[in-house]
Amino acid sequence: MDFARVELSAEDQVFLDETRAFIATHVTDEVRRRDRQTGENFDEQVHLALGGAGYLAADWRSESDGGFSPVRRRIFQLEIARAHTPWYHWGTTSVVARLVQQFGAPRLCEEVLPGVLSGEIRLCLGYTEPEGGSDVATCKTRAVRDGSAWIINGAKMFTSNAQNARYVFLLTNTDPRGSKHKNLTMFLVPLDSAGVEIRPLRTVDGDRTNIVYYSDVRVDDRYRIGEVNAGWTVMRSALDAEHGTGEREDHGLQDVATMAGHGVLMAEAVDTVAAIASQPDRDGRRRLDDASVKHRLGRSFARVEAALSTPTMFGRVAIGQTMRDISPDLMDILGAAAALPTDTEGSADDGVTDYLFRLALPTGIYGGTLEVFRNMIAQHALGLGRPRYG
Ligand SMILES: Cc1cc2nc3c(=O)[nH]c(=O)nc-3n(C[C@H](O)[C@H](O)[C@H](O)COP(=O)(O)OP(=O)(O)OC[C@H]3O[C@@H](n4cnc5c(N)ncnc54)[C@H](O)[C@@H]3O)c2cc1C
């Protein structure tokens, strides 16, 4: 790993200054407060502003296609993370838009891609089902051919941001008698279709997600993404992006691991606790003078540094596991008032550690649980073979 500092050219420095100022104008305290309250991880005004200023298009396109250079992409992504921009929905939108471009009909690309880049069209993921999400290929949501269209029936669990999206990238089963992985087909289903019902669902950390029901939803064949029964091939690219197992470029400027943004939040929380623990109380005593506090804070710093330096799938597990392990320690150091959420009088840290503690649980679930990632590492990275249960 190369820890060298990147010297910015004068033009890139201007880009950094302008981007930081632009984000500060749009991602205000009010936006962040609303995001904590709604748990949506999305803000339409911010998204449209970034689209209107060309940031979404530049982030989505490759450099050769007019997008950001690697340095500017890094600057943009770091500034977005540092401002705590509600950002999750761009992740799903940009990944799915790439698959539409790669596997979708030209007419569908024309219908969808310009709106994605302007920010008006957002795309969400419909993989997980009520009976289980880790083994997505067991999908039961049915799509049955009906002339030039398909009729879809089923239910999807945890379709995050469906309430803000125009389409869902939907995994369906098109051949229940076919063999696993060879009976799946992907669609980009317009969420305003008759028969789609979106019901809100709130998770333990306060996130808003949804359960979505599909009852005789009629979708034209032009919304199919990839060949019939070849959905697994299409979906693999999306899963690789989500799992952080996709190809890495050799300029070294990409995030070390997926979920690095969560790592930034975690690092900020440890800094916050260290700053509070260094303050003397009315009697001149500091929490930091207690050897056990020093030990636990030191251990948290070391764990965070190790997690932030751990690459790819390993890094994703390291970030999720570290967040679960250190957040109780951080809350304990600050005492009972650390359990009070943001904007609450008497909170020890304006809810920073309380939020980290609650975020740690879903961070080890969405996009694949920590257990499933550990199996993938064992099987694919370490070559230890398939796990055997029972
Ligand atoms: C906040 C949030 C947002 C989400 N957003 C989306 C979204 O936008 N779109 C979407 O499609 N899904 C989404 N998900 C779903 C997420 O991807 C699934 O929750 C996840 O894949 C796990 O599936 P499951 O919850 O059905 O658990 P299950 O698969 O039922 O697993 C239950 C338990 O069994 C363990 N387990 C399962 N299989 C194995 C195995 N092979 N080896 C070892 N242990 C195993 C798991 O680790 C877990 O502890 C979201 C989830 C959350 C919490």
UniProtKB/TrEMBL annotation:
Highest taxon listed in the record's lineage: Bacteria
Signal peptide annotation: none
GO molecular function, one term: flavin adenine dinucleotide binding
Keyword Disulfide bond applies: no
GO CC entries: plasma membrane
Domain annotation Acyl-CoA dehydrogenase/oxidase N-terminal: ranges: 10-120
Keyword field: Flavoprotein, Oxidoreductase
Pfam families xref list: Acyl-CoA_dh_M, Acyl-CoA_dh_N
Acyl-CoA oxidase/dehydrogenase middle domain ranges (all copies): 124-210
Positions of transmembrane segments: none
Name of the protein: Acyl-CoA dehydrogenase
Provenance organism: Mycobacterium helveticum
